């Protein structure tokens, strides 16, 4: 501190100390040099210390920088690892598409389509047309066709509609494993409907059918529903003394009794006695329908097992097709169908009206020709071809149902 003062005020020494000027100058000079040396050394030391501190500061900054870089790399790597781990994790958020009205509508459509095929629509349509056709057989005069008549027809159709679902459904419930081989497209066999759902549908339809027929109060209709339910339960259910479909003769008799006897007779009597309040009379037109349907129903009973021979053999159902061969049974069925159309042609020719003879004659002749032509091109090795012919059999029957009431007008 003193040297700094002396440097800044050189004359202060002489004033303060006094004495010999030379000595003073010499002393001042020596002191000056000494002080300057110390100052220079101090400055160099400070410069060195400053430089050293500066270098340390730079190194510290560099180290901090590198640490930051390393830390950033580590953070980025950690972030990348986190993202990779987070992507495949399942999300538990609510998914709005699950309740999308479009998806709900699609599910409802699929359920309705499955229910449609569960009901065997071709069989159901045939039964409804049978009711209409048979009801018209009881009409002897046009005055009989009234609102009361249509109500009577509706009273027969509604319980029989539910009975048709029961008849076809209960058969599928006990044929699920067989259908997986023979008819894998059916709702139960394909899994579109569960067994529980099918059982609920079947039980509900049986209950509704019996209840509605009892509410209507027509005894012919009650007998119709009661007999059909008993026969098709025995036909399908796998229980002791039941499962009649395993026996070819009993299986054919079930279909014959339903289509050729129960349906025509009970529906005819329902309209004639319950609706029109007329005495019980079996007309010639009813006898014609019974004869026609006897041949046609036996043909259907035999033919329905022709495409299913593989599954029937696998589960021990010895149908006539499995015993006698597909080709032999196929042409036997064609012969029965052609005979049924021949009965219709003869019945139409016996009518007292010329226009009925012409219409029914041409109609049954065309049906017989179409059947024969298609029978010749059926491939018995193809299930698709055989099932297509089976659908044709039902379609030809639909047309025949429309021709039957015309014949009845010339048979009364």
Automatic annotation (TrEMBL):
Keyword Cell inner membrane belongs to the record: no
CDD domains for the chain: PT_UbiA_HPT1
Membrane topology classification: Multi-pass membrane protein
Record-stated family: Belongs to the UbiA prenyltransferase family.
InterPro entries (alphabetical): AtHST-like (IPR044502), UbiA_prenyltransferase (IPR000537), UbiA_sf (IPR044878)
GO molecular function (one): prenyltransferase activity
The protein, known as: Uncharacterized protein
Transmembrane domains' residue ranges: 111-132, 144-163, 193-215, 221-242, 249-269, 281-303, 328-347, 353-372, 392-408
One Gene Ontology cellular component: chloroplast membrane
Entry keywords, A to Z: Chloroplast, Membrane, Plastid, Transferase, Transit peptide, Transmembrane, Transmembrane helix
Protein encoded by which gene: PT03
Entry-linked Pfam families: UbiA
Keyword Membrane: yes
Compartments (UniProt record): Plastid, Chloroplast membrane
UniProt cross-references to Gene3D superfamilies, sorted A to Z: UbiA prenyltransferase (1.10.357.140)
């Amino acid at each position: 501190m003193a040297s700094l003062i002396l440097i800044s005020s050189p004359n202060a020494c002489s004033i303060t100390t006094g004495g010999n000027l030379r000595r003073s100058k010499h002393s001042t000079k020596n002191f000056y040099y000494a002080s300057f040396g110390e100052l220079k050394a101090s400055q160099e030391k400070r410069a060195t210390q400053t430089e050293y501190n500066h270098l340390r500061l730079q190194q510290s900054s560099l180290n901090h920088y590198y640490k930051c870089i390393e830390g950033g790399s580590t953070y980025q790597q950690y972030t990348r690892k986190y993202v990779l781990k987070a992507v495949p994790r399942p999300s538990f958020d609510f998914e709005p598409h699950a309740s999308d009205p479009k998806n709900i509508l699609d599910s409802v459509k699929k359920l309705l389509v499955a229910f449609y095929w569960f009901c065997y629509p071709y069989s159901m349509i045939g039964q409804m047309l049978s009711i209409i056709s048979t009801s018209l057989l009881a009409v002897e005069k046009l005055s009989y066709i009234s609102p009361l008549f249509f109500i009577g027809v509706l009273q027969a159709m509604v319980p029989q509609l539910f009975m048709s679902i029961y008849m076809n459904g209960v058969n599928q419930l006990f044929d699920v494993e067989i259908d997986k081989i023979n008819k894998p497209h059916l709702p139960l066999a394909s899994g579109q409907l569960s067994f529980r759902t099918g059982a609920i549908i079947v039980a509900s339809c049986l209950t509704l059918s019996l209840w509605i027929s009892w509410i209507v109060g027509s005894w012919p209709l009650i007998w119709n529903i009661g007999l059909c339910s008993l026969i098709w339960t025995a036909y399908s259910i796998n229980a002791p003394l039941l499962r009649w479909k395993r026996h070819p003769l009993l299986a054919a008799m079930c279909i014959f009794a339903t289509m050729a006897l129960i349906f025509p007779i009970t529906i005819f009597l329902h309209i004639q006695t319950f609706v029109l309040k007329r005495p019980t009379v079996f007309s010639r037109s009813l006898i014609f329908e019974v004869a026609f349907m006897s041949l046609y129903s036996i043909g259907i009973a035999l033919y329905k097992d022709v495409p299913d021979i593989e599954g029937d053999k696998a589960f021990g159902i010895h149908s006539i097709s499995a015993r006698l061969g597909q080709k032999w049974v196929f042409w036997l069925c064609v012969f029965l169908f052609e005979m049924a159309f021949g009965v219709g042609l003869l019945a139409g020719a016996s009518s007292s009206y010329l226009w009925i003879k012409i219409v029914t004659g041409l109609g049954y002749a065309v049906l017989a020709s179409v059947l024969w032509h298609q029978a010749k091109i059926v491939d018995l090795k193809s299930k698709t071809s055989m099932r297509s012919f089976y659908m044709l059999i039902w379609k030809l029957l639909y047309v025949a149902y429309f021709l039957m009431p015309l014949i009845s007008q010339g048979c009364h």
